[in-house]
Amino acid sequence: MSTDATITGGANAPAVEAAAAIPPAELDRLTDDIVAALKSVYDPEIPADIYELGLIYKVDIGDDRKVAIDMTLTAPGCPVAGEMPGWVENAVSAVPGVQSCAVTMVFDPPWDQSRMSDEARVALDMW
To answer: Is 48 exposed, middle or buried (0-12, 13-18, 19+ CB in 10 A)?
Structure first.
């Protein structure tokens, strides 16, 4: 039975389920550090990070500290589609306590502007 923690995208407010093998304080630190790592990755064509853009659909933190991420792109034909998952994997793998990171590109549901945070809307002047 898995008791993995999950950070879910959407409104960009992580929802975390308790993970039995990771103490709560450590899980909170890991969650914060993973979100910070995700915020360090930018779409080179858009002046906002991928987390605030709503490109991260799901982050699972396993009891074994292996992280699995489902993400998307603003458009399937994005020129960095082949590179961006590697950028995300490298950023999250560098977080202290993370054992490994695997990124899966998904396109369902399709990304749209409603997934962006207020911070991304300000950066893109989309009010």
So the answer is: buried
The pTM (predicted TM-score) of the whole model is 0.84
Is residue 102 classed exposed, middle or buried when 0-12, 13-18 and 19+ CB atoms within 10 A define those classes? middle
**Per-residue pLDDT tens listing for the chain (127 residues):** 334 555 555 555 444 444 568 998 999 999 999 999 999 999 888 889 999 999 999 999 999 999 999 999 988 888 888 899 999 999 999 999 999 999 999 999 999 999 999 999 998 888 6
Burial zone of 33 (CB within 10 Å; 0-12 exposed, 13-18 middle, 19+ buried):
middle
Q: Identify the bridge partners of residue 59 per DSSP, sorted by sequence position.
A: 7, 69
Task: Report H helices in 12-126.
Answer: 24-38, 84-93, 118-123
In the block, tokens 């969650």 appear at: 31
